[in-house]
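R.M. (postdoc): so does anyone remember the format we settled on? I'll just put the structure tokens first.
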């Protein structure tokens, strides 16, 4: 498959994923809004019915004693023709009044559970055949004495849902086809120069296809015009290397043939089977080619993805709005009919229309309960009562004008007035706010995924084979025929790689044959020297397999996303599970899955490098994926806190193995001079995955349910493992890159704490920052937002700002602060900023203040993350030279994680007794105290050291 088609296939897969997710979100949002409208319409009937029972309840009488209950229920049922039944039941679920003539089954147990768990007296539920709205009845003391359940058949709901699903799916398919063709055109234009360069490689492959070519190939080739964009200079360089490699091959072949006793022609020897060759991992010279291509394609890719999402979103919004308008009109009619009956009842009792006491308060209460209505009014030729805002501007809908049912008020057979009801024109926008926010989040995540995929596909289809060819050609041009590359493709690059490899195989075969048949000792010595010079040996050359950062980029992204999907609801999920540890404090029980996860990461981090040395990166990643996948499936089925803790610990261990093994792979995959840049790209891929998982987790939980998110996590882990199996090379034999020193299982991490400045850095900056991360971001944010009434999707959108801030601030901070502040000052600044940000929540508890605090914490973490490492290394190089820097860094990481575990459990314990806000205030105290201790210790030691050095200098001058 050519480069163009590979990239197009990858891109349309991303496009299909985007449109599929957005289509499903649109359909789910439509069903949510439609069912909510129907159930709230039923709630109007339930409220109307309840008003007739409250007078009896307030007298202390049981609801079964209402004598005219049958007439009341029949009157309420007539309000809405969609109502199929109204049932009044006592606290145990026994029905005492019903519009159903026969077969009064008790209220379903699941319905009673929904009623008991509802924080409000209004609640709703559904079953296979009905949508239902309920209202809890209470006496004057607030005790629950029963309820009212209003039901409507969901046949119409299901039919509308099927119709809308078909319309949106059809539109998504058409949009997919159109934008896929646009993507093909875009790729054809943007990759045109690269494909032109590949055409030149095709010509090179044809020119070098025969061994009989003379040594003056460079003079016979057509002149190369350096206008091929990305590959111009690389192809010019490759031509030079190939020409030198072919010349060197012919020269060595000729020399070996002169030593052959049988005068055998080397050219007659074919290529041997390469299946049994010893393999070795070699780092190709890192270039930014794949990233250059990806960055060039990304703006256009983003435009196509955004364009397709925008078109589908507009279509879905228009169709959904058009489909919901009849339901909204029907509900408005019910609301108007209820208001009309209540006004009419007062008029029938002889109260003059202009003397209705509390009419405007009544309408104001209705507006609170029914946000789709913006205005209520009573008119007699002039407005006598009103509440809300009248829709009388030029773009207002005509709901209270022509072709809208009126609600007349009758006295003595004559109309004396009428009720005006205006629909809120912004209602649909409010209903679709969440969907539009979810659209934006999904598109952002998909663009991050698209960048990763485009980079990997470009690397696998073009840049990696091209770099391998350059590497092998460079070796042979320098006279090194020790290695071969087995390419399985049919492109010009693959053919040239195989041609060069065939040359190395033939020279090794000829060298072996010549030395085995050589009887002259002097000539044998000359042959051995020739072999040493051109890296020939008895047997076969080494098969090279290359490792790149891009091998682990996509598996790492998916693994990190899978791990972070539950972060927005994990404390809520744990709180709802059965508590098998009743002897522990509730707050600690809720925090145990997070604490166990962190403990597993600490243990896993100590085991990764020894296990990598034993199994290799590829096997360790696969070994980590299998139990992690099973653990996510276990979390899906978990109903007990202990089960959640155990399975979450397994996922933490798998995460530690995956991240650390991928990082170690990157360190081995690239030359030392390129490590800083490659680690930066590694961190970007990791946090992109964390951001994507955090952003999507809440959306999926709101739409699919919290347990289903773990199934999605398992699927992502499976996909990550599959890509690891396909992308990472397998090898037997040596690693030609520079080895990375392995640390022991348990390095002496306590020894650096003897230095006061290092201890201040650990316990004053690093540990409080990680307590903030685990206790606030991972634990308290979800609980506090849930207490404030935020949805899980709202929580995930707020939490994603933390990781988004890290992604932007982490790389940018050094450029702005490097020359102004030293690492310790930057760390101190970050600590103070995080404390100030959290104060906003303590002073003004609200969703916006939590967003400010989360974003501030992300900015501060971005400031602290790298400077604390730099500060630790400065201390290691100045005061801890007797210890290896790896031990110093291992100590920093181990103690900050252990400290965060202790801090998390402490804050969780406090939250049970003093509340979430005071627990957040305790985090502020910890951060400020740590920062003050760090500043006092660090700078007192700094000035003391300066004074001591000054005295030593003066003493030396005196001597």
């Amino acid at each position: 498959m050519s480069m163009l088609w590979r990239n197009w296939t990858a891109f349309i897969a991303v496009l299909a994923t985007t449109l599929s997710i957005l289509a499903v979100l649109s359909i789910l949002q439509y069903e949510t809004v439609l069912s909510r409208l129907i159930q709230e319409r039923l709630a109007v009937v339930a409220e109307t019915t309840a008003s007739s029972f409250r007078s009896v309840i307030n007298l202390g009488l049981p609801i079964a004693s209402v004598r005219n209950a049958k007439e009341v229920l029949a009157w309420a049922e007539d309000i809405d023709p969609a109502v199929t039944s109204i049932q009044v039941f006592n606290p145990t679920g026994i029905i005492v009044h019903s519009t159903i003539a026969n077969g009064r089954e008790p209220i379903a147990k699941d319905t009673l559970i929904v009623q008991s768990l509802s924080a409000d007296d209004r609640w709703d539920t559904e079953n296979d055949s009905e949508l239902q709205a309920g209202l809890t009845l209470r006496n004057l003391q607030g005790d629950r004495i029963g309820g009212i359940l209003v039901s409507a058949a969901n046949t119409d709901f299901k039919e509308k849902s099927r119709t809308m699903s078909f319309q949106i799916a059809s539109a998504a398919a058409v949009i997919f086809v159109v934008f896929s063709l646009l993507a093909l055109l875009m790729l054809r234009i943007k990759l045109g120069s690269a494909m032109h360069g590949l055409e030149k490689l095709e010509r090179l492959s044809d020119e070098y296809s025969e061994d009989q070519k003379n040594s003056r190939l460079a003079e016979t080739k057509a002149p190369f015009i350096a206008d091929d964009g990305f590959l111009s200079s690389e192809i010019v360089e490759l031509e030079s290397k190939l020409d030198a490699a072919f010349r060197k091959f012919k020269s060595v072949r000729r020399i070996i043939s002169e030593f052959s006793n049988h005068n055998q022609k080397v050219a007659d020897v074919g290529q041997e089977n390469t299946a049994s060759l010893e393999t070795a991992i070699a780092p190709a010279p890192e270039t930014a080619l794949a990233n250059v291509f990806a960055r060039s394609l990304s703006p256009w890719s983003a435009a196509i993805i955004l364009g397709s999402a925008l078109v589908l979103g507009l279509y879905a919004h228009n169709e959904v709005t058009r489909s919901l308008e009849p339901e909204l009109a029907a509900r408005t009619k019910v609301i108007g009919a209820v208001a009309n009956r209540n006004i009419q009842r007062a008029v029938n009792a002889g109260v003059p229309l202009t003397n209705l006491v509390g009419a405007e308060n009544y309408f104001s209460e209705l507006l609170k309960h029914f946000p789709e209505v913006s205005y209520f009014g009573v008119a007699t030729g002039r407005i006598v009562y009103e509440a809300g805002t009248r829709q009388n501007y030029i773009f207002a809908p005509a709901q209270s004008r022509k072709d809208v049912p009126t609600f007349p008020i009758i006295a003595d057979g004559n109309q004396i007035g009428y009720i005006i009801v205006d629909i809120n024109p912004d209602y649909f926008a409010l209903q679709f706010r969440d969907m539009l926010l979810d659209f934006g989040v999904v598109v952002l995540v998909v663009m991050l995924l698209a960048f990763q995929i485009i980079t990997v596909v470009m690397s696998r289809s073009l840049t990696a084979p091209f770099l391998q060819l350059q590497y092998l050609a460079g070796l042979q041009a320098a006279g090194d025929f020790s290695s071969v590359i087995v390419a399985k493709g049919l492109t010009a690059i693959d053919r040239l790689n195989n041609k060069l490899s065939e040359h190395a195989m033939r020279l090794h075969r000829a060298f072996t044959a010549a030395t085995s048949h050589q009887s002259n000792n002097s000539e044998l010595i000359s042959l051995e020297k020739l072999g040493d010079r051109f890296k020939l040996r008895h047997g076969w050359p080494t098969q090279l397999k290359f490792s790149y950062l891009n091998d682990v980029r996509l598996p790492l992204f998916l693994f990190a996303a899978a791990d972070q999907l539950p972060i927005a609801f994990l404390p809520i999920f744990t709180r709802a599970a059965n508590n098998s540890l009743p002897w522990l404090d509730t707050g600690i029980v809720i925090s145990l899955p997070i604490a166990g996860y962190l403990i597993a990461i600490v243990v896993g981090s100590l085991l990764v490098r020894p296990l990598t040395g034993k199994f290799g990166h590829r096997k360790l990643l696969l070994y980590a994926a299998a139990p992690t996948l099973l653990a996510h499936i276990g979390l899906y089925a978990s109903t007990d806190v202990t089960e959640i803790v155990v399975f979450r610990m397994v996922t933490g261990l798998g995460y530690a193995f995956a991240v650390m093994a991928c990082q170690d792979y990157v360190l081995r995959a690239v030359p030392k001079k390129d490590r800083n840049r490659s680690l930066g790209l590694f961190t970007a891929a990791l946090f992109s995955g964390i951001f994507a998982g955090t952003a999507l987790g809440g959306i999926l939980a709101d739409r699919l349910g919290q347990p289903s998110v773990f199934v999605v996590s398992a699927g992502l882990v499976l996909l990550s493992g599959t890509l690891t199996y396909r992308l990472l090379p397998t090898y037997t034999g040596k690693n030609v890159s520079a080895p990375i020193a392995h640390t022991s299982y348990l390095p002496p991490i306590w020894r650096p704490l003897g230095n006061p400045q290092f201890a201040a850095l650990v316990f004053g900056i690093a540990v409080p920052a990680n307590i903030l991360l685990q206790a606030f971001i991972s634990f308290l944010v979800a609980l506090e937002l849930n207490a404030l009434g935020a949805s899980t999707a709202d929580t995930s959108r707020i939490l994603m700002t933390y990781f988004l801030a890290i992604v932007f601030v982490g790389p940018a901070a050094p450029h702005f602060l490097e020359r102004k502040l030293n690492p310790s000052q930057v760390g101190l600044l970050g600590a103070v900023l995080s404390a100030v940000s959290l104060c906003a929540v303590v002073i003004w508890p609200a969703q916006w203040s939590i967003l400010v605090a989360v974003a501030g914490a992300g900015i501060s973490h971005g400031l602290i993350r790298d400077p604390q490492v730099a500060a630790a290394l400065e201390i290691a190089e100045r005061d801890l030279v007797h210890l290896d820097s790896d031990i110093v860094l291992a100590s920093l990481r181990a103690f900050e994680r252990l400290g965060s575990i202790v801090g998390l459990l402490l804050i969780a314990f406090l939250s049970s007794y003093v509340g979430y806000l005071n627990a957040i205030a305790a985090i502020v105290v910890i951060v400020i105290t740590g920062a003050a201790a760090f500043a006092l210790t660090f700078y007192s030691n700094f000035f003391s050291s300066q004074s001591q050095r000054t005295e030593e200098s003066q003493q030396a001058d005196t001597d």
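R.M.: ...and that's the designed sequence above, right after the tokens. Also worth knowing: The first helix runs from residue 3 to 58. Residues 210-228, 262-271, 393-404, 732-745 have pLDDT under 50 and may be disordered.
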